[in-house]
Structure to design on (396 residues):
């Protein structure tokens, strides 16, 4: 007799909160359900007024044994929720749902509690390593905490039967921390949702934007570690170097604690859009841009990089972290040294100056994305899970 395999996700971020981790986690949940898994989710409770820009899918309460944990906003970054202690919630879910596997998608309260309770109940525990939070300590002015954060991450992931990380460099970082059960997974993108055919410049048209305007785009959280201020600086340099009536515009989509300061420092020709509907609005925005700008050095993947490439948009970024796994200079974008604002500006002007080169890189970007099928990644995840729970088979 076969039985549907069951996995319990424990995560400190989930839609309606939007970031790379919440998006990948929600897509994993929906993809596993489509592959015959029963999936329950324990995640933070968010304010009722927070709009779910994920639109479809990702519902934390889609399974009767899913649960929402009370949470409070993190001081200084209210978009992030700090979950309350949740041992009772996780324990009740484990006893009622009887998961064959527990996946801690984050290393904080809910993820930590899920891992601890899984081990206590003799259930295989796996985890995700999306972000090297120890590097964030420098961006937030507390570099002395980098060592303690690294040691915590090391201890946490060493307890996992398998650690899933989307970047080759991230896998090497984990190995350096003594974590050996690492699988590079999650390097995928929905190439149908994000596609060049969704280009519709009218959807972003305004008094400063028409078909002749070169549109630069950045999508992501507006936080200290993302380096968006460098994008603004580089754009201002590039804008002043454009001659012969050439026009450009910079669109920044996303939200976060740095938004007010970034808007205050932005020069002319910059539009901030906030968070956007991922299913309808964001794909059109990507495809309607001419180049994508990225300044973060701490990404294990940089999901937005792949979404831009899938949309046929060349990327201007520093080949640092997971970005280096996919960015190929003068093939699918232009690379510049990390932190070099002048070099970023030079790359931006080069794309505006040479439309043929931009078009060639756009083709290369799409070709890169087409090799990274999200459906294949979900198949791999399902198979990897089944290796952790031998004897449990998907119901016919």
């Amino acid at each position: 007799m076969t039985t549907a395999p069951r996995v319990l996700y424990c995560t400190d971020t989930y839609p309606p909160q939007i970031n790379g981790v919440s998006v990948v986690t929600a897509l994993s949940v929906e993809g596993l359900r489509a592959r015959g898994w029963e999936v329950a989710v324990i995640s933070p409770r968010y304010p009722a007024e927070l709009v779910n820009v994920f639109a479809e899918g990702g519902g934390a309460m889609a399974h009767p044994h899913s649960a929402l944990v009370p949470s409070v906003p993190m001081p200084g970054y209210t978009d992030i929720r700090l979950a309350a202690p949740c041992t009772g919630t996780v324990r009740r879910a484990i006893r009622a749902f009887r998961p064959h596997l527990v996946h801690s998608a984050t290393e904080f309260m809910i993820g930590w509690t899920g891992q601890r309770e899984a081990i206590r109940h003799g259930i295989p525990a796996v985890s995700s390593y999306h972000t090297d939070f120890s590097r964030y300590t420098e961006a937030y002015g507390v570099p002395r905490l980098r060592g303690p954060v690294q040691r915590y991450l090391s201890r946490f992931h060493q307890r996992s039967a398998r650690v899933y990380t989307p970047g080759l460099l991230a896998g090497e970082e984990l190995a350096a921390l003594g974590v050996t059960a690492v699988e590079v997974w999650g390097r995928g993108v929905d190439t149908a949702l994000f596609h060049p055919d969704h280009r519709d410049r009218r959807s972003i048209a305004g008094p400063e934007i028409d078909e002749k305007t070169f549109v630069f785009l950045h999508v992501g959280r507006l936080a200290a570690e993302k380096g968006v201020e460098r994008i603004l600086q580089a754009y201002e340099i590039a804008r002043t170097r454009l001659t012969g009536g050439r026009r450009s515009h910079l669109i920044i989509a996303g939200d976060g604690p740095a938004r007010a300061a970034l808007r205050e420092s932005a020069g002319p020709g910059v539009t901030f859009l906030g968070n956007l509907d991922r299913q309808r609005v964001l794909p059109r925005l990507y495809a309607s841009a001419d180049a994508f700008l990225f300044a973060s050095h701490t990404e294990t993947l940089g999901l937005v990089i792949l979404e831009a490439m899938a949309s046929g948009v060349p990327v201007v970024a520093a080949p640092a972290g997971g970005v280096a796994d996919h960015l190929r200079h003068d093939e699918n974008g232009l690379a510049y040294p990390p932190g070099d604002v002048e070099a970023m500006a030079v790359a931006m002007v080069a794309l505006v100056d040479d439309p043929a080169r931009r078009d060639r890189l756009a083709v290369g970007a799409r070709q890169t994305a087409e090799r990274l099928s999200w459906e294949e990644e979900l198949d791999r995840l399902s198979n990897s899970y089944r290796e952790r729970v031998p004897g449990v088979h998907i119901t016919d």
